[in-house]
Amino acid sequence: MARDPVRKRPFVKDEPTGTPPGWERDGLDAGWLYSTGIGAIRSARSYKPGGWWFLPAWLPDTAMHDVGPFPTRSAAITAAEEMALRANKQ
After folding, report:
1. Could you state, in order of their start, the residue ranges of all structural domains in the chain?
2. Going by fewer Cβ within 10 Å, which terminus of the chain is more open, N or C?
3. Do the Cβ atoms of 54 and 43 come closer than 8 Å?
4. pLDDT exceeds 60 at position 16
């Protein structure tokens, strides 16, 4: 059984800060969100420059699998959810 390569940090249920349903805020870094089965969204402040980055849960945690950058957190979450839907249909 493969272990989840993305979830390496503690995640907490978000307080009312506008985090979309199904996504959890990282307990250490507010610029990192995670959704089981979808993956992680990381901000430029938390990860690497250029915007928001998505790492799909079904791929290894390496820079070559990062998708983005996206200009906003919303755009990254929308793209991540759409990619997960397409991946689950295949």
Report:
1. 20-89
2. N
3. no
4. no
Distance CA 51, CA 12 (A): 23
- Asked if 46 and 29 touch (Cβ cutoff 8 Å), the reply is yes
Contact 40, 65 (CB under 8 A): no
Cis peptide bond prior to 69, omega within 30° of 0? yes
Quick one: CA dihedral 8, 9, 10, 11, positive or negative? Answer: negative
Q: How many CB atoms lie within 10 A of CB 23?
A: 19
- Give the global pTM: 0.72
* Residue 57: other Cβ atoms inside 10 A: 19
